[in-house]
């Protein structure tokens, strides 16, 4: 088994991983491990943009206020303050490096999205911000001589010694061989897990690997019940959901129910620009009320040329599906989009395991609360990617004595069985742990998942077996946490507990082989 050593390991190549790797490279050697190509990530597909208080009429204080309002009482004050203040600096830093955001007449064009009181969303290429941003930073990363990238290389376990993380074991999909990579610090930046639901906006890689790896190693997980469902994903029967950015509503698009009636004005003062949890739940209620699998998004009242220019990527993709977004009613329905909770970290991205860090969507830093404010996710990647890498650099070099764990095989004959199981679990999660939940269905889901877990081999020897175990464990963590939270708050909505409860202004912490903990937010 090949053994390699670096100062820092970064697992994942989305914006958080790239930011962490870039800043870590200033302090030593870095390995980036990605189970796919380096440019495949949720960050790459982000359409809307990145939030930053850079306008004269805006301020970090206003950005802070909007973030905590959207977070519905579960944001950690200090983390949000870091996000909105350091976030502005990280954006300006990117611009100095050469990142080109969209301008008009020499000024940055700032978009508006749900929950924001000011126009503060920078975008690039109209609606291709994630692609532009990740490609730009990827180029910067690839120019650093002390960063080594390993594509199509999946981490299968975190190496632990004396309670510390000393590196990772991984499998190279091209050669089929296993490798050990040791380092004084490992940073998980593996992204989200919404591909565990059958209707989702996420790429196929977003299956929660980092969550599962951290849980198995003994890391604390926080707020796993909070999955954000994006309100506006194209609905086509038996086809993957296609994300239609919230920025489209920011430019004035309307939501219409199956009867063609606009309904959000009666729900919230911000109408279509209410925070995502409110919009998604309101759409769900309209679908239930009128027994329709979708509602409609309408831009027919807006300037068509402006829409084609501002949302060229979305416009062209919808054309492929047979829709003209400037003149047709677009069928949409909510889809699993973003993991709000995750691996619990401190303000420097450090977990409860020495040597293990997390940043980006995989992490729970305290900034998102119970509902992410639109376009804060890319900002969080930049802020906490840098903080995690700088804290990781302070660790002393290790001399791990770790003997190589048994290597996993990757037998393609096991792939079909895994995919069948994955689809079965995804259907179960969408049906019973989706946008609206209840105790009875959550209990049924837990029983079914536990039964599936028992069917797996006691000793995992193949990568597909490992993946099966991981997705079942993650879905159990989500379901158990959702069952414990007996209230409706943010992205977590219970039919049997329809109101927020002051008793649940707390984080639910889960850790392997330990009972769940209820930790109040900091005062």
3D structure, described in words:
The chain has helices spanning 15-24, 42-45, 60-70, 77-97, 129-142, 209-217, 246-250, 276-289, 304-310, 312-320, 377-393, 415-432, 439-454, 463-484; strands spanning 2-5, 8-11, 30-33, 50-51, 103-104, 107-108, 110-111, 121-122, 147-150, 153-161, 164-172, 178-182, 185-188, 221-222, 227-234, 242-243, 254-256, 295-298, 330-339, 342-344, 356-358, 363-364, 506-510, 517-520. It is an alpha/beta fold and 523 residues long. Among the domains are: 231-336, Flavocytochrome C3, Chain A, domain 1 (Alpha-Beta Complex), CATH 3.90.700.10; 406-506, Methane Monooxygenase Hydroxylase, Chain G, domain 1. The strands form six sheets. A five-stranded parallel β-sheet has the order 9-3-2-13-21, covered by helices on one side. Strand 15 and strand 16 (242-243) form a beta hairpin. The mean pLDDT is 94.
